[in-house]
Amino acid sequence: MLRRLIKTCTVRTLGPFRPLSSVQKIENKISTVENSSEIIDPRLVSNSDNLNENPPESSVLQPCKEDISYVAPYLRPSFNFAAYVNKSHTLQQLLKLGVRLYKWEKNQEVPPYILQLDFDKDIKSYIIFLTDLGLQTEDLGKLIEKNPFIFKEDLENLQVRINYLKYKKFTDEMILRIVQDNPMWLSFSTQDIDKKLGFFQKSFSLTGNEVRSLTARKPRLITYDIEHIKLNMFVIKEEMGFTPEEMKQIVLQTPKLFMNNQHRILKTFDYIHKEMNIPLETIVKMPQVLTCREFRIKQRHQFLQKLGKLQFDTKKPNYISLITLVSGSDAHFATEVAGSSIHAFNAFLKTM
Amino acid sequence: MLIKDAPVIWDSLRSIICVYKPPNVTCQRVRQTIITAVCTGLNEMECRPPMDYVSIEGNPSTQLTVTVKPNLADHPLVVGPRYQIEDLKCSWSNYLGLHSSGVLLLGLRNGTKAAKLIRENRPTRSYRVSGRFGEATENGFKNEKVVERSTYKHIKHANINKLLAAMQASHQKEMFKSCGVDLQSQTAYEMACEGPIRPADSKLPVIYGIKCVQFEPPDFVIEIQCINEYETYLKSLIHEIGAKLRSTAHCTGIQCIRHSYFTLENALLRKHWTLQHIITNMEECIAIIDEHENLVKQKKAALQ
What we know:
By secondary structure, chain A is mainly α. Among the domains of chain A are: 2-53, no CATH class; 306-352, no CATH class. Chain A is built from 21 helices and no strands. Chain A starts with a helix and ends with a helix. The model of chain A is unreliable at 1-52 (pLDDT under 50). Chain B has 304 residues and is an alpha+beta fold. Chain B has two domains: 6-46 and 68-117 and 265-295, no CATH class; 124-259, Pseudouridine synthase (2-Layer Sandwich), CATH 3.30.2350. In chain B, the strands form three sheets. In chain B, strands 1, 4, 5, 6, 9, 10, 11 and 12 form an eight-stranded mixed sheet that branches. Chain B has a two-stranded antiparallel ribbon with strand order 2-3. In chain B, β11 and β12 (262-263) form a beta hairpin. The model of chain B has no long low-confidence stretch (mean pLDDT 90). The chains are: A mainly alpha (352), B alpha+beta (304). At the A-B interface, α4 and α5 of A face β2 and α3 of B. Chain B: Belongs to the pseudouridine synthase TruB family. Chain B: InterPro entries: PsdUridine_synth_cat_dom_sf, PsdUridine_synth_N, Trub2.
């Protein structure tokens, strides 16, 4: 029985590390493992030491006085983290960082990978590295949640990627903003990032400073799907008819536009340009109106039309700029911009 | 909101709500938006805390310690928010097509039963349909390409009124034919005495009233009271009106202004689709249902 016991406990604790050969060998290794890692139950280790010192050959029929409560079947495969979280120190620590574990269950590769990590051995150094960059706890949780495979990257590689940014004259605040806003940034190799920055510099003919300010403003744009950005560039250049210089102004003012759905921005543009007759030059000055949803600009425009207060000519009195048209709450718009009341606006909305 | 407990609010979701469906948004999208709004609203409130986790530790042959701590396996960060969008049942009692807008009744949780009863009772609905003479489009709506042009100067307000009155009369004749009883019988006579009746068939559109409320050539607006209608039927009706008046017409907007006792005033605008407003609206709707018992329980075939 005892042999079996030793076998079970060694298989349980050391099974993942190496094949079992002889008891002597195991004894040595138990002591090394005891020092290095915390995953072994202390009860279990001391117990096996006792057994090896004085192995009593007793009958299986005698009542057992040893603590065998740890001898339990393995945890069964589970659909979610809930089965493991009460036992796993790693998951509990991640929980303290505010990581939403249930989000990882959508990607089937993530849970098996996370479960084999050990917090002190595999994760701690990364958290120290990221905190040194200036990340707060909530940002850390968000970053780990969005990019769990960051622990697969080598720490030196991460340092090289940060050094690359420093070499390219990004300030510390910019680097912090990049890591905060774009959790995936650190998973891209230096060559990839260099290529992507080069793409933006070339296709929008930006200067070095402009590339830096664009990156700091919207770090997610740089690592976004290049094909999608090319598509939106086509929409803005060919379908809307902006010149390359105008497109440069647009990307510097509203980088978000290039990540939006192309049909959506085209719809909004069509309404602004064709229905409201706003010239392209005016739109270039305030490209953020293109990110507004069509129905919002439509209902406000039609309300003003009904009141007879449409005035998009800058030189005439009662001029309404496009930005005041789309920004602010409905109450603010109805009272301040349209000079009416929110009830009238709501009643109008129910006629559309 | 005075109540902060999410389960109390969850339990109170047991009736229908009345929302204003915007045009160019599908009913499915509206339903999804409402469900998401309700669930996020509930999750922001005070939800159930994690259950207790009783752990027994130590050597069974000597001393065992029993500790009780919150169960991490029940933590919202591990299993997800308490109110999941899949858990909230929601169904509509009148379907409005993509281009239609207006009053839409949605049943939430237990209210899906009321929504089903209202749907099966087939109450009348009023529509305001706007059209434009002179152009016919491929599918009868304004967003498709124009396939035919014609003149419309000869159409006067009196012409359109005359046509609509004739249409209403022929529909009323049809209504008695489709009521499901022999026209020569005593039952048919008694039913006819009570006024307009509903058809036995749930697929047959019947118009009870049709009137032109606005006529500014080429644009016109008609108001329709009907049963069993659908979007394509209303579009084809406008097309038919155009053809009968020796011109062509296409539809520029369809708005459902009344569904049984629910009017535009009760409808919740898109910007108000939050938990707070939805709960208030549900209370209004419960009051309307309580006031009019025939909404969910009908006894006769006559129009009510």
